[in-house]
Design brief:
The protein is mainly β. The protein has seven domains: 183 residues, Zincin-like (2-Layer Sandwich); 101 residues, no CATH class; 104 residues, Jelly Rolls (Sandwich), CATH 2.60.120.10; 153 residues, Jelly Rolls (Sandwich), CATH 2.60.120.820; 92 residues, Immunoglobulin-like; 87 residues, Immunoglobulin-like (Sandwich), CATH 2.60.40; 91 residues, Immunoglobulin-like. 13% of the residues lie in helices and 38% in strands. It is built from ten helices and 59 strands. The strands form 14 sheets. The chain has a six-stranded mixed sheet. Strands 11, 13, 14, 16, 17 and 19 form a six-stranded mixed sheet that branches. It has a six-stranded antiparallel sheet with strand order 26-25-28-23-30-31, with no helix packed on it. Helix 5 packs across helix 7 and helix 8 crosses helix 9. The longest helix has 19 residues.
Length: 908
Amino acid sequence: MLSLKRLFLLSGWLMTAAVAAELQIVPPRPVDGTPFLWNKYPEVVQYKRLAKPAAGDTTFYIRENVEDGSAEFIEVSFYRLVSTDSIEIYAETAEFDAGRVTQKDAEQVRDIMLNYTPEGSVNTGKGIYSNEIDLFGALPDKDKNGKLFILLIDVRDNYEEGSSNTYIAGYFDPLDQVTGKGNYGEIIYIDTNPADATDEGTLSVVAHELQHLIHNYYDSDESTWVTEGLSQLAPRLLGLPVSSFAAYLNDTNLSLMDFDGTLADYAKVDLWTYYLYQRFGLAAIKNVVSNKSNSFSGWINALSSAGYSVTTAELLRDWFIANLLNDPTIGDGQYGYGGASISTLSSAYLHANFTDGEEVALALNPAAAAYIQFYSGSNIDFNLSYQSSYSFGLAIVKNYATPEVTFVTRNGSGTYSLADETFGIDYTKLTIIPYWPAEIAANVTVDITYSATGVGGYAESELDYDKDSVDFFIELDGAEAAEKFSGYSGEVQLAAVKILTYDANPVTVKIFDSLTNSALQTYPDVIPNDAAWTRIDLDPPIDLASQSSFAVSVTSSENSLGYSSALDGSGQAYLKYDGTFYDLSNFTVTDGSDDVTLTGNWTIRAIIQGEIVTPPEIKLTPNSLFFWQDEYSQTVLIGNGGTETLEWSITADLPAWLEIEPLSGTVQSISSEIEVTIDRNLLTYGYHELNVPITSNGGDATLYINVLKRNDSEPQAALIPGNREFGDDIGRITLQIFNIGPDSSEFAFQPEQTCLQFLPASGIIPEGDTLSIEAFLDRAAAADSILVFSFFDGMDTLEYEFTYPDWDGDSATRFTILTPFPNPFLPDENPVLYIPFRLASAKPATALIFNLLGQEIIREKIAAPQTGLDIWTWDGRNQKGVPVTTSIYIVVIRQGERQARQKVLLVR
């Protein structure tokens, strides 16, 4: 049996202890906070002042506990090991005597501080100290000796060998810059237990802290997120080890201005500062350090001093796009990092298929962005709604060969829609970026919901052997853990993998068709989530149709991978040893005095996707054509709402005045066009309607064609096509008639059934005018589902019909008042209240209105009463023509000894 060993972890200024131990199991635990960071003055509980200038061996006051928020100091003796014109290097006496720091170590620190920096530095011929003065500005020289003091100490950070996972590798103490507090001078503290002061990882922390020291001199109250970003940039510019940007690019909906010291916060401000450096150069960086303005104002002023005119909103917007595209060839290069690579952005809103009307909600933070992405399927129809008290933006990115970027501004409450039939054809990935370029750090959000429909896409399934159970985490210590997957079938792809690790330290993920072959794809420097599942999307996905199995491996020197005993891992779980993958059951871990044989599986999962296949479905856009003016030809798109091929045809005999080309075709994904052409010379005057049936293997459709031919010589009215269907909850339909002749024209409507009535039923329509006609249906009295009526257009009487598909076969004849509308009646918004009523006979009738006191308000004889439906209107005035006040009124219809009543509410 082979056993695994432990390696501790690195996080921010907290360094890891390279200590081998027999304990190999890390128990699962929640994420419970962030490392202690020096970004504010701690509360001063006690302070001491250095009694003498540092010359030769001396004493300094150091923090008794750097993880304590107070400022307790202890006096410690030091040896002076290096003295130059610009730096002094001292070693804590106890550390030097114990051999944890040597004269040679101090000299190496001197050299990298003054004489050289590693490959990748902006100037390899200068050290950290010399370069940072060029980059950020001079040191303050509070103690007037012109020197930087470097103290090599055992930082008091509660580190215990064998039991502590982390330690603080170094720091800058702001109290050293305050008269009467600390040592009062320019000092950087470097840890020597367990850190190696000459290690580049430790020196990276020194570079970080030195920027804080310089920046504190120029702008001591600078916003934390700004100075932390610049300190993160310092080692990056000096060729020293740096952390990945992935912790932020995996979770972008974080306000840039909020800084709590998490790994994602460091990555966020690091990436922002690196973007500005790559775009605007070193002059802008030095300007922002020396500028007294804080937060975004400091950046804008610094850029202005360097000759750039740009707003905060523009900077944030461009940065959000650059994080997705990183393509400096677009525009003026604002959407890239000048050719430098960054980690791939991973969206929390990535869709392989459509949400099918299901609403997805997100709360957008200030100075943050979210990335809604669709990467498969076609013919997308995207809808977004929002509520906000602030203005925010939407960036729409279509991934053509050269991506197309457009912007939309939104505020208040509203919607945004995007329908694009070319999605999936002309380009295959769409990203919609809600972004909020706000300069506020308030606890407010823009609340957004969205949904999308389309054709096809991918259905995903997850292959897992852990069954949502984790026994413990195993420290990999550079070992390569692998999981083999099989049992799938069909035309499928490996779209993504998921891993569960103990923390957010980087890992390398590889994909194999066989563990005896080289990797098909490798993803280095992946920053996983801390004790939570992380999805890594493959680009491109791997076709699995020709292979029966594949494997996924995870490697890390600083992270731990979950282990589950829920299922037998034989033939599935592996570990690489001496260049060969062995079954995991050959290995053990030690839990105290007990050895545990690893017979289970790693917490590695695979996301398999297969194309969604749906039957063809015919769709017409538009499904109605109106030739009302001088149109002679229009285009209709025949679309396919499925993934299988649509076959369609028009077989009906067409009138001589109509031509459609072509009359048949096939549609796979993008719509086919048909051209519809008319010849008005072959038509009589008036409106003409024609329904053209289209048959297909994806259902039948109807193309509605409406043509107007004007009368140049005789007065004539025309009935404009519109809705002619009464639903179960619809008792009134508004029709439009239009004068198509050279003079005023008569018109008249005549229903065939007494349950149908028009208001006005006849009249004169002036030349060039349009008139609204209200058609009323007494639904309970309808004798048929087809309601025929005639229309006299001034020249001819034409026959039309309404439909009432909810007709139930009954035909009521009793005397009654139907529901008045609108009710409530608002005379300022509606000219009249319509009061439909049904008469059982044609005897004389009277309409009356009473107030709640029983007083008669108005009385009117019903002119020419008729059996069936009739309409009376009231304008909200009394018998004298005076408007009545807001109240409830009683409408009464009397006919002989019988009367019917209804209540109405009038509101002014």
